[in-house]
Design a protein that fits this description.
Helix content: 55-70%
Number of strands: 0
Oligomer: single chain
Number of helices: 15
CATH class of the largest domain: Mainly Alpha
Distance between the termini: 47 Å
Structural class: mainly alpha
CATH superfamily of the largest domain: Heme oxygenase-like
Length: 347
Amino acid sequence: MAQVFDEWESTMKLPTPRGPLTAFLFEELASPPHRFDPPPFFSPQGPVLYDEDLQLALFACYELHYRGFEEVDDEWEWNPSLLAVRQDLERLFEEGLRRTVPLPPPPGGTPMRRALADLVATTDGGPGLAAFLARKADLEQFREFVAHRSVYHLKEADPHTWAIPRLHGPAKAALVEIQIDEYGGGRLDRMHSELFRATMRSLDLDDSYGAHLERVPAITLAIGNTMSLFGLHRRHRGALLGHLAAFEMTSSLPNLTYARGLRRLGGDAVACRFYDEHVQADAVHEQIAAHDMCGGFADAEPGLAPDVLYGAACGLTLDRLFAEHLMDRWRLGVSSLRQADLMAAGR
């Protein structure tokens, strides 16, 4: 029997501003496309990766290249005034990434697959988020984790797909092979984003696209913004591949652990299918991504091999910072999501 899918919105509404930058930007975007003067120079209040105003503004700029916003005309996507603002935000964001993520040593004569494996093995994995979710998290904490992840998982493979037309040869073929699985081999019921929606429904979470954007903090947005930054700029194609490789190389065991945690909390086979699927799929994808995709890319464009490792390092570091945020908040006995009073204050 064919699976019946609920109706869902293809776009989301503009979120509540989190500061003067997003207040200015969202007011412009809610109007018909036009030229506008850039806002006064924006100075991040603290570390860029944790700046709520900057990360939300950049996320909104990038979202116009995905599904957009209900109130925003599609012609804003390539508006020169908006692109000028985005360029300034990207400069600040890239500077923040460089300050936070150490540049790995170049691979030299080491095969890319080995260089990536060494990087993964020597990177601090953080405070053990997966183990906590498996053994100790309560249902509300697991629901929070899923709400955070929904900002990416309901896009799933889309940011990395930007690389396909920018590649050739073995690297391109390998990326397509990975993405075919992510998109369910062309079957809607097997698309990983749809499997994640089933997990969300099982946890009584709103599974519509962007439903939890209001609630997630800057560090969660920074994870998605990094992928979009790499994906939307050809000059970052090496970093995008490295980011995907690191994701695949560190995904299988955590997903096995997430599934155990969700089953401990009463999740059934439907609820756990997203995680179960990634245990097997990502074990295969790990080999394709590291050897065929990144190895093939480094062979074809050796000058960009360091970019591959930097992209991987960005993905690993941001995942650690995300895990630290969740665990720090939970140790204090408070939610890892933004609360209503903070959202009202735009913080």
